[in-house]
Write a structure and sequence with these properties.
The chain is mainly alpha-helical and 62 residues long. The chain has a domain of 33 residues. The chain is 66% helix and 0% strand. It has two helices and no strands. The longest helix has 27 residues.
Length: 62
């Protein structure tokens, strides 16, 4: 059985925080025009439509 790698998330988090504070870290914000963003918007619309349908059906039954 292979040995599992050691998780060093704490060390990574500390290094990222220090880089951000010192100004060494440079990051580019995500844009809202990608495929993933479009899928997220469609998913939100679908979930909202489903919830509204359920609400109307429940209202009709009462």
């Amino acid at each position: 059985m292979a040995k599992r790698p050691t998780v060093r998330w704490n060390e990574d988090a500390v290094a990222a925080a220090r880089a951000a504070q010192s100004g060494e870290a440079t990051a580019v914000a995500k844009t809202a025009d990608g495929v993933v963003e479009k899928l997220r918007v469609l998913r939100i619309a679908r979930v909202s439509a489903r919830n509204e349908r359920i609400r109307v059906l429940n209202q009709l039954r009462s």
